[in-house]
Amino acid sequence: MSINPDDPRLTAYALGELDDTERAEIEAQLKDSETARRTVEMIRRTAEVLTEELQAEPLASLTPEQRKAVEAAMAQGDGRHPVPILPKRSALRRWRIPASLAASLLIVVGAGYVLLPSLETARRRSIVPGIVASDFAQGPATRSQPAPSQRPRTKRRSGPVKKKVRPAAGGGGGQSVFSGSGGGASAGAAMGGVTQTTPIYSFRTIDLNKVPAEDVERLIEQLEVEESAHMLRDGFSGEAYDHIVANPFLLVTQDPLSTFSIDVDTASYANVRRFLTQGTLPPPGAVRIEEMVNYFDYDYPLPTGADPFSVNVEVADCPWNGDHLLARIGIKGQEFAPDERPPANLVFLIDVSGSMQPANKLPLLKEAMELLVQELADDDSVAIVVYAGASGLVLPTTMGKDQGAIHGALDRLHSGGSTNGGAGIQLAYDTAIDNFIEGGVNRVILATDGDFNVGTTSQSELVQLIEQKAKSGVFLSVLGFGGGNLKDSTLEKLADKGNGNYSYIDTLMEARKVLVDQAGGTLVTIAKDVKIQVEFNPTEVNAYRLIGYENRLLAAQDFNDDTKDAGEIGAGHTVTAFYEIVPAGVEIDLPDVDPLKYQTSPLDDPTDEESSPGLTPAAHSGELMTVKLRYKEPDGDTSKLIEMPIVDGGLALADASDDFVFAASVASFGMLLRGARTPPLTSGGAEDVQASGDLGGLTFDGVFELAQGAAGDDPHGYRAEFLTLVERATELSAANDQGQAP
């Protein structure tokens, strides 16, 4: 039997006020009511926010006169006890006290659950007009107010003051006081380098001293109603994403080298899919184009030599600009048969904090981990570390053949408390190191929504902790779950610095893809610190831009520096990168560059040998570019070099491989979702992602046509699903343009 979401016992459960018997009874009933589970999560998160806010408020103090009056009243009794004596609270009284808070919060639920994950963000970001209690010239008749000259000065924070939100139903009339601006769910605000999906609104401050007393309450209610409407319309959320700056075109005569770290993460694609299937366009920061492209497998040949991966390059006409070329660099890692995989020492690091209670978080996480456990060999081992307010080892290292013990430990996990991720990370790595297998797979698998809120909480400190632990030889996989408060920015960086990969699990099907179908790539690292450097030939190329990999760029000198961290490749992984190339002789509009004082100026015509004394004989070889890769063995410290010259074979887009065209369609889809036009050709610097528009004439419909014609072999249906997502994005984009709900 499921529990009623209005049951006051939910508040006591959320606040940890039930005994073991009562808590077990509520948990059993919660399994059958997702609405009740979400209610509990809302109450728990709200209590955390309110507690933090109250702790931050300055303590009120009594004047000496007030203190004397209180002490005198207590001493005399005044017909009451000198010291108040509170009766022992019954269970029902325990529920009623906090339930009054829950009842007021459930009003917000009526306005829409989109507000549930937003309370912490509302605390961090001011979105309400600047109204504070001391701004009231007159209040209700029953409330006494000090004269303006006696009124205590209110310490204002920067930005408007926060207020609670009432539902968007009802509300007084009158003229709106909002001068707000904000887009849809894709609108974001850069905040310390991290983009929140929460929109920013600008309000003109209301001076309530100038508002007639009888209009004050009506005005406040109108503010709350309109504020709630803005929140509902814009998908108010506490998710955090990095601010992405699109790579610009660069002149080959000034920047002939392009260097970046490879990336095998796929989280962005699954996360974008979540947004689209829920009926909203993703925020720009959620769209990492390289992760969109690398979500799909491509038919690159397996390695045949001593290197653990093959390198493949294909060049054809650019789909969105016929005057340009598109070069695809593809890497394919060696594969292992299941019985050839080395033994694994795995530590599951599982977030069981209160924010993980929804069905698409801890319950889905447990199902996902059970899928992975079924793939373990008898000589593999698993330990389970959990963390909430504190961390603990709930399953010591256990051999894979003991499936019952592992599944039993997973079944017993339940959520509750705040999130002390730093302590859990420490314990998980200690456990992995204690059971380290030489020559085996040693990996921590972190599963969380990334909402670390106690202990080590700052992104930089967590990243530093992971960087330090990565030196132990233990690799990291990060699995992101849920929505509303997903800290994508943090999780992506932890995987990057932990010599690992980052996947987002939105469905059990995605869990099977990552942890079963692609288990080798997820668990077994075949090469680490893999870097790519491309040198462009100025006689063949005027300019170029790297599509995606914005947060993986490296300095040219980093390519030969073996101390610089880079990406890892797992068994069977494919990695794809695109360059858009402006061939020599194609007219381009470039800003003027002042002549150099200490060096020869950039070449006016690099194809003219007489005016090109700095060119080498190789510049006239007809080579378009040279692709170089460096990598280390998983346990090595010295890199190895692979080098490959590339010539443009004049391949038309119609003659390119299906994989080339399909991958190009995914890349262009990501650029359209991000709202990026083709960046202007510049001599350097970076061009920020700007307003939504087409891509050199390519639209969502054009992306669909490209992908549909190149879907090719699709055994798992991933490419067919992509076509569905493109259709959904087309609908949502059109609705946004028309100002309609999708």
List keywords for this structure.
single chain; 742 residues; alpha+beta; Immunoglobulin-like; 4 domains; 6-stranded mixed beta sheet; 5-stranded antiparallel beta sheet; 19 helices; 18% strand; globular
Account of the 3D structure:
The protein is α+β, with helices and mostly antiparallel strands and 742 residues long. The protein has 4 domains: 1-111; 117-148 and 157-238, no CATH class; 250-336 and 526-591 and 618-737, Gamma-adaptin ear (GAE) domain (Immunoglobulin-like), CATH 2.60.40.1230; 338-523, von Willebrand factor, type A domain (Rossmann fold, 3-Layer(aba) Sandwich). The chain has helices at residues 9-14, 20-30, 34-56, 64-76, 91-111, 119-124, 213-233, 267-277, 289-294, 362-374, 403-411, 421-434, 459-470, 488-497, 508-517, 519-523, 658-674, 700-709, 718-737; strands spanning 189-191, 194-196, 240-242, 250-251, 257-261, 309-318, 321-333, 344-351, 381-387, 391-399, 441-448, 475-481, 501-505, 525-536, 541-547, 567-570, 574-583, 623-632, 640-647. A 6-stranded mixed beta sheet has the order 10-9-8-11-12-13, sandwiched between helices. A hairpin with a 2-residue loop joins strand 6 and strand 7 (321-333). Helix 10 (362-374) packs parallel to helix 15. The longest helix has 23 residues, at 34-56. The radius of gyration is 30 Å and the shape is globular. Residues 77-206, 223-236 and 676-694 have low confidence and may be disordered.
